[in-house]
């Protein structure tokens, strides 16, 4: 795992020519692909931007840009979980704690209760500080997504059953009218 925050900050300042304190998406794409020679398509850039854009303003401030470069330097772009792991790793520690896990879950718009996320991370933590290594993170993400999918399926099943009940009830009422 490679982290050089000072260098990331220097790179940001070099790209922030007008000293706006941010870099927009097109500037970022040009910087990443042309200057830093990172092979990335616009779709991947947009996804990664959304993951690190903490204030959701659509541009990269210096700290967000540093996090973006951290992901670029460490993640495997062909492995979604790798990108998610480094996007979740806000403190560049190489592990994910329960708060970082919750934050990435929310960024992905999964409606998983905080208690479940915390409980799952604590149960599977494999580091001395109750955090997850990348390998364990993959397993936990699979588990949480599976639980979320099952919950969503149950909700859909209940809606379907309710709709069938109403339909049957309406048919019975029509029959007796």
Helical proportion? 55-70%
Mean model confidence by pLDDT: 85
How many beta-strand runs? 0
Work out the radius of gyration.
Answer: 22 Å
The total domain count is 2
β-strand percent reads under 5%
Order of helices and strands: HHHHHHHH
The residue ranges in which pLDDT falls below 50 over 5 or more consecutive positions are 164-177
Secondary-structure class: mainly alpha
Protein name: EF hand domain-containing protein
InterPro entries: EF-hand-dom_pair (IPR011992), EF_Hand_1_Ca_BS (IPR018247), EF_hand_dom (IPR002048)
Domain EF-hand: 40-75
GO molecular function: calcium ion binding
How is this fold's topology laid out?
Blueprint lengths: L4 H11 L9 H11 L6 H11 L9 H13 L5 H9 L9 H10 L6 H11 L9 H43 L1
Characterization of the model:
By secondary structure, the protein is mostly helical. It has two domains: 1-74, EF-hand (Recoverin, domain 1); 94-177. It has helices at residues 5-15, 25-35, 42-52, 62-74, 80-88, 98-107, 114-124, 134-176. The longest helix is centred in the C-terminal third of the chain and has 43 residues, at 134-176.
Task: Please supply descriptive tags for the structure shown above.
177 residues; mainly alpha; Recoverin, domain 1; globular; disordered C terminus
């Amino acid at each position: 795992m490679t982290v050089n925050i000072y260098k990331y900050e220097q790179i940001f300042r070099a790209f922030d020519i007008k000293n706006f304190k941010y870099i927009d998406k097109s500037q970022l794409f040009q910087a990443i692909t042309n200057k830093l020679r990172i092979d990335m398509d616009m779709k991947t850039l947009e996804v990664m931007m959304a993951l690190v854009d903490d204030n959701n303003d659509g541009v990269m401030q210096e700290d967000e840009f540093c996090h973006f470069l951290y992901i670029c330097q460490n993640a495997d772009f062909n492995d979604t979980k790798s990108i998610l792991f480094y996007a979740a790793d806000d403190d560049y520690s190489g592990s994910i704690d329960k708060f970082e896990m919750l934050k990435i879950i929310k960024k992905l718009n999964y409606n998983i209760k905080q208690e479940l996320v915390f409980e799952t991370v604590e149960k599977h933590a494999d580091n001395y500080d109750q955090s997850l290594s990348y390998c364990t993170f993959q397993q936990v993400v699979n588990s949480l997504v599976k639980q979320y999918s099952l919950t969503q399926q149950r909700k859909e099943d209940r809606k379907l059953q309710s709709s069938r009940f109403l339909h049957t009830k309406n048919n019975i009422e029509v029959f007796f009218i």
